[in-house]
Design brief:
mainly alpha; about 0% strand
């Protein structure tokens, strides 16, 4: 939630200092914004402060999904003497071990941003893609891209299905959001709240760890 305050504070401040405007136009988004605020996903703001008709950026989408689904933030190490080091998430050979490449940022273009931890979280969870080391944080998203992201967060990215189609078919995401135009902040807020605001939805946090190791000489039990 603090990241959203940081990302939107300049906009909210400018609106607060502006001259009084005409009566607020009610949209379908205000109830979702209020609900997300009550859930601690975003600050308690009005639809004007959230600027609901502005296209959602990839950075904002990462923060929204990370906070809505309680993803564990990642805080990679930055090695000043190895700026060329590219993030790795898998071994290339059977005898390799963890090295610096597993600890650096995947998204080099969000280093220093208050949302960097959220970006690394969605990349690590395989919810959002990255072009080399470029996340393109200010780039917009289409409705279909955001619906796919939201559905992957809900079902899990490893599920071998068309995530967007599955979520729409199962009634978790409204088909009107699955479009090829840029999705707005209001649409994104409503799509997320339509899931986490349902009475039959519950988020359960799990702590999973593993102890994976191998031996050059296979272990043989005594007497075998």
């Amino acid at each position: 939630m603090k990241r959203f305050i940081t990302l939107f504070s300049a906009l909210a401040m400018s609106l607060a200092l502006a001259a009084p405007a005409a009566a607020e136009q009610r949209t379908p988004y205000q109830d979702a914004i209020t609900g997300l605020g009550d859930a601690g996903v975003i600050p308690a703001v009005s639809q004007e402060q959230l600027d609901v008709f502005r296209p959602l950026t990839r950075l904002e989408a990462a923060v929204l999904i990370s906070d809505a689904f309680n993803l564990a933030e990642l805080q990679p190490q930055e090695l000043a003497d190895r700026p060329d080091l590219v993030k790795r998430t898998a071994y290339a050979g059977a005898l390799e071990s963890i090295n610096e490449a597993f600890m650096v940022s995947a998204a080099k273009d969000t280093i220093g941003s208050p949302a960097h931890g959220a970006v690394e979280a969605v990349i690590n969870a395989q919810l959002m893609s990255i072009d080399g080391t470029a996340f393109n944080p200010e780039g917009p998203m289409t409705g279909h891209e955001f619906v796919t992201l939201l559905a992957k967060a809900f079902y899990g990215p490893e599920k071998p299905v068309d995530h967007a189609y599955q979520a729409v078919r199962d009634g978790w995401i409204d088909a009107r959001f699955d479009h090829d135009d840029y999705i707005t902040r209001g649409e994104a807020a409503l799509a997320v709240y339509n899931i986490i605001g349902r009475e039959d939805y519950e988020s359960v946090t799990l702590f999973v760890t593993s102890d994976i190791h191998g031996h050059l000489i296979p272990y043989m039990p005594a007497g075998s």
